[in-house]
Design goal:
50s Ribosomal Protein L17, Chain: A; alpha+beta; 2 domains; 7 helices
Amino acid sequence: MAGGGGKYRHLSRNSAHRQALLRNLVTSLFEHETITTTWAKAKEAQRLADKLITLGKKNTEASRRRALEIFYTPHAMLPKLFGPLRERYAERPGGYTRVLRVEPSQKIQYFSIKKGSKAAPAERKPQPQHPMAILELVDGPKDMRFAMTARTLERERSKGRDVPHGLTRLNVQKVTQFRKDGVEVLERAISKLSLARKEKKAEKEEQVE
């Protein structure tokens, strides 16, 4: 399932358990469009998810059979893969998914050590938590980079800065380039955020009065 004969992460599992884990992750990803897991699992699931999108774009009997073998809920996921997702990524040459590193909720985990153990004199020993990440389908309703770019633009415009610069300009290009009606969709998102800001400001003013 790794594909291409290249190196891949074993994820501390044998081959069968590893494949079952990745199938479960990509099924959840295609159902919810975003999942949170460890960085290592996200990177491996990303490879399989991108392969599934490629199968969807081919839209052949062979590609349908292959996708059928991967999804745990093919009756729900195949229509989505070979329908809306195939249309969404029709013009995109690649990069159908994105992995974003996130800070773990707790930087240190602890596990107990029985008294008298030779492992350590203390009863509890700190253990670093695995790096966490968000794996998402790009150009979808839950695209985090799109949402963050819209919020940044709305905030800048509220301060009178209408022309994006630097990284923001680059992100605008990335989130609109292959999205259908990307610029218009982004402008609608900005307008919605601007309206929410005005309503919140009005509520605060009413409370003061």
